[in-house]
Design brief:
The protein has helices at 31-44, 48-56, 64-68, 72-75, 85-97, 110-125, 146-154, 170-178, 218-235, 251-260, 267-281, 286-294, 303-320, 325-331, 335-374, 391-402, 429-438, 461-479, 498-506, 560-567, and strands spanning 24-27, 102-106, 131-133, 159-163, 182-186, 200-202, 379-383, 406-411, 416-422, 444-447, 451-457, 484-487, 489-490, 519-532, 536-542, 548-553, 572-584, 587-598. It is of the alpha/beta class. A five-stranded parallel sheet has the order 3-2-4-5-6, with helices on both faces. It has a five-stranded mixed sheet with strand order 7-8-9-11-10. Strands 14-15-16-18-17 form a five-stranded mixed barrel. It is globular.
Length: 605
């Protein structure tokens, strides 16, 4: 793959130097990538628009066939390349063959729930009855803890496998050692040089791991672990005379965790999601099927469905309800139980949305005052009234609104704060949080470049804000120096067809690190626009030849681009966005998801 080219400044698209959202619209393709697109099209007989999308995402001509058919078999590394993988597999294989009790300790987000579910389902296929423990976010906090480990040991567990957590759980694993409970850690979070003493710690982001798989979500690492475990059990003759577990049937859950943890959809991750969406379409997992129906997912599942409809409902359990609901939903073999849990999660998600709206109003007011007073590089907001399970969502909203890293912190009566942070591309938040822990500003904290969690005393919040601003200001300024929207090509409503969508699907799936194509629609008349739902703007775009395209602009009623659409009824505007297929009553239609709008009369000629 080619990296993003910086050999020249991309040309403006439609002359838009400043849009409603203060973006310059620039061609995503550099000159060298345009040449690669031409070569891809000519060598492989591919349509120009598909070749352009591929080249803009780093595909070189020789790689085109493999890119269009991402194979897990081709892209999967030997799991043994990961440090400690063989030790983890050996210990787990021993437990399986000796029919020992295995306890699974997972994180309370979607990545943790899916990781726990695929390991539990694998063990159940082998006739074992594992126990899953997902910690209560409020009572237990993040990661393994002493009381939970003591309870699991008393329940007969002889092996503890932690998934999506555990890389920094020194105290908890000291408790496990005293109880003679073996521990295997499967994780992906960034860690320092010192690691807890356990039987095996598999984490492609540990500093001595050279496997090159640090982009995987925990569920992706867990799947590699299952591949290696299956291989070892087969070598030991465990499957003689019996059918092996169907690992490919677990890829729907691997895709869900991968998309929801917002890891880059490149390499093996892209293969996971591509194949996993196909498995999900077969509706083989009762829980996933029930939640999809409850969330009113229609048509073929897409990363959007996973990330914005299914994932938030699973997360709602960990945020404000029973953290174990997600893992139970994804492992149940009872369709009635699946339906009941799905409906419960849907109700919790509605409750979560109401709580989030109230919290966001307060956080936004605090952030606005902070920006006006001192324009910090990193926002730090907090309140005694906030639910700690929702602070990550608040941080994400603030990051989007103010285009800088943001933290939201929930303080208890004793002044102890539990917070979450979200970053922008180019600013490593996890590294800064780990440094703050080492400097004594935080009681604990960790994460990765784009998201982090922390525990802080209220009296140290001001010093923490100063630290973040001094440490990250230069990176934030560099990352926000140029506000732009990258555009893949210009289209008209006439060209936005199902045939085009079929072509674009070949270069997908799209998500973090593999951007969804953005198209500019020049001077289309806004023949209709109004507000629908919770602040969304829907519109109809009309081309000069009379063809039309339905469009939706999410949560934009009070945003500049939403107001321009509403005020622009009957006028011609430049509109930019991504295309999707909306299936209504069994009929698929192309729809535009508007990202930005510009006035043709105020562009650079």
């Amino acid at each position: 793959m080619l990296g993003t080219s910086g050999e020249e400044e991309r040309r403006l698209v439609l002359g838009v130097a400043r849009s409603a959202n203060d973006n310059a619209w620039r061609e995503r393709l550099s000159a060298s990538e345009a040449r690669a697109a031409m070569a891809i099209s000519q060598l492989h007989g591919l349509p120009d628009v598909l070749a352009r999308v591929m080249a803009a995402r780093g595909v070189i001509p020789d790689q085109a066939p493999d890119f269009l058919d991402p194979s897990i078999k081709t892209l999967m590394p030997d799991p043994s390349l990961l440090v400690d993988m063989d030790a983890a597999v050996e210990r787990a294989a021993d437990a399986v063959q000796k029919r020992r009790k295995i306890a699974i300790f997972g994180d309370y987000d979607v990545d943790g729930a899916t990781s726990s579910a695929i390991f539990a389902k694998y063990l159940q296929w082998l006739g074992l009855d594992p126990v899953i423990h997902i910690p209560d976010r409020i009572i237990e906090g993040y990661g393994p803890n002493g009381p939970a480990i003591e309870s699991l040991r008393q329940g007969g567990a002889e092996l503890l496998v932690t998934l999506d957590c555990g890389s920094t759980s020194f105290e908890a694993f000291e408790t496990a050692r005293k109880l003679d409970l073996d521990v295997v850690v499967i994780d992906h979070h960034q860690v320092g040089e010192t690691l807890p003493a356990v039987r095996a710690l598999v984490n492609p982001n540990r500093q001595d791991d050279l496997s090159g798989q640090g982009h995987l979500a925990a569920v992706g690492v867990t799947f590699l672990f299952l591949v290696a475990l299956n291989r070892e059990l087969r070598r030991r003759g465990a499957f003689e005379g019996g059918q092996q577990p169907d690992l490919m049937a677990l890829l729907d859950l691997v895709a869900l965790g991968t998309v929801c943890d917002v890891v880059p959809l490149k390499g093996l991750n892209r293969a996971y999601v591509t194949r996993g969406l196909a498995v999900m379409h077969q509706r083989r997992n009762y829980g996933l099927t029930s939640l999809s129906d409850t969330a009113r997912v229609s048509g073929k599942p897409t990363p959007y469905h996973l990330g914005f409809l299914i994932g938030p409902r699973i997360n709602a359990g960990g945020r404000i309800g029973d953290a174990a609901l997600g893992a139970r939903l994804l492992t149940t073999e009872d369709p009635h139980e699946a339906r009941a849990i799905a409906e419960r999660l849907d109700l919790l998600n509605t409750e979560r949305q109401a709580m989030e709206a109230a919290m966001l109003e307060q956080a936004d007011a605090e952030a606005a005052l902070s920006v006006e007073a001192r324009d910090p590089a990193v926002l730090l907001t907090g309140s005694n009234e906030w639910h700690p399970g929702i602070v990550g969502l608040i941080a994400s909203r603030l990051k989007e609104t103010y285009r800088r890293p943001a933290f939201a912190i929930s303080y208890d009566e004793a002044g102890k704060g539990t917070g979450s942070g979200r970053s922008i591309s180019g600013v490593d938040l996890g590294k800064a949080v780990r440094q703050a822990v080492e400097d004594g500003l935080l009681e604990k904290g960790g994460g990765h470049a784009m998201a982090a969690g922390l525990t802080v005393r209220r009296e140290k919040a001001a010093d923490l804000e100063t630290f973040f601003n001094e440490t990250l200001r230069q990176d934030v300024e560099a990352a926000t120096a140029h506000r732009e929207l990258k555009v893949d090509a210009a289209l008209t409503a006439t060209g936005a067809t199902l045939d085009l969508m079929e072509l674009l699907e070949k270069a997908g799936p799209y998500g973090a690190g593999h951007a969804e194509p953005v198209f500019a629609f020049p001077a289309h008349r806004i023949s209709f626009a109004d507000v629908v739902g919770k602040g969304h703007v829907r519109a109809t775009l009309a081309a000069g030849d009379g063809s039309t395209l339905k469009a939706i602009c999410f949560k934009s009623e009070d945003k500049p681009h939403g107001r321009m659409l509403l005020d622009g009824r009957g006028r011609s505007l430049h509109v930019a966005g991504s295309l999707s297929v909306d299936t209504w009553q069994g009929t698929p239609k192309v729809q535009l998801r508007i990202l930005d709008v510009a006035d043709p009369q105020k562009v650079r000629i």
